[in-house]
Amino acid sequence: MVPLSFAGHEFLALPEAALYWPAQRALLVADLHFEKASWYARFGQFLPPHDSAATLDMIEALVARTGAQALWSLGDSFHDADGAARLDPMVRARLDALTDRIDWVWITGNHDVAMTDMPGGRRVMEAQVGGIWLRHEADPDDPQPEISGHFHPKLRLSLRGRHVSRRCFVGSATKLILPALGALTGGLDAGHREIKRAVGPGASALVPLADRMLRFPLT
Question: What are the structural domain ranges in the chain?
């Protein structure tokens, strides 16, 4: 975990693509896309059916590591409206237990907007915490500080003839986009015009390592 200052608050960025907010004792994650593999399987594209369990493994480990008492999932928590119904019963039981144990908030995303069955917790369209808006997709017209997901940003570099891709945060003075945490999620290049439009000028790709933060200006 490495320090990350944003909008007058101190956070800890985790290399596992999550953000911890010590003052709120809250873990922030985005784009879990539970049951993505089973959604693809319905259309004949068979992927290993373990993505939900792997994503939940990571969340449980992060909650234990940080001591988080709350979790904000910033949208697209499930890959589609029927995702919760397809959860393996053991995974569903683990998720139910975790949402009962901590203050879990589901923010609605474009993939899960039609869901009627969320496992525990509470559901909101967006929320303001400590003067920061938490929502799924960045609003480039809102000047207020905001943390969001949606874009699954990845930093792509060419180093000594090798192509390197890594999940990253993208931040500016008032916008912070989280990488996707889901086990099967892809990613959009951090320098893509839609990401730069969403965060505005002065944006950087942020890659947290174990002991430091790497910053790459998105010019």
Answer: 2-217
Fold annotation for 2-217: Purple Acid Phosphatase; chain A, domain 2 (3.60.21)
Distance, in Å, from the CA atom of 151 to the CA atom of 190, rounded to the nearest integer, reads 9
Task: Give dist(CA 23, CA 62) in Å, integer.
Answer: 17
**Residues contacting 33, CB < 8 A, separation 6+:** 51, 55, 76, 77, 78, 79, 111, 180, 182, 184, 185
Residues in the chain, how many? 219
- Under 8 Å between Cβ of 140 and 193: no
Question: What is residue 13's predicted lDDT score, i.e. its pLDDT?
Answer: 97
pLDDT tens-place string over residues 121-150 = 999 999 999 999 999 999 999 999 999 999
pLDDT tens readout for residues 191-219: 999 999 999 999 999 999 988 999 999 97
**DSSP code of 99?**
H
Q: Give the whole-angstrom CA distance, residue 134 versus residue 122.
A: 14
Residue 6 and residue 176 in contact, taking contact as beta carbons nearer than 8 Å: yes
Which of 69, 191, 194, 177 lies closest to 133 in space, CA to CA? 177
pLDDT of 43: 63
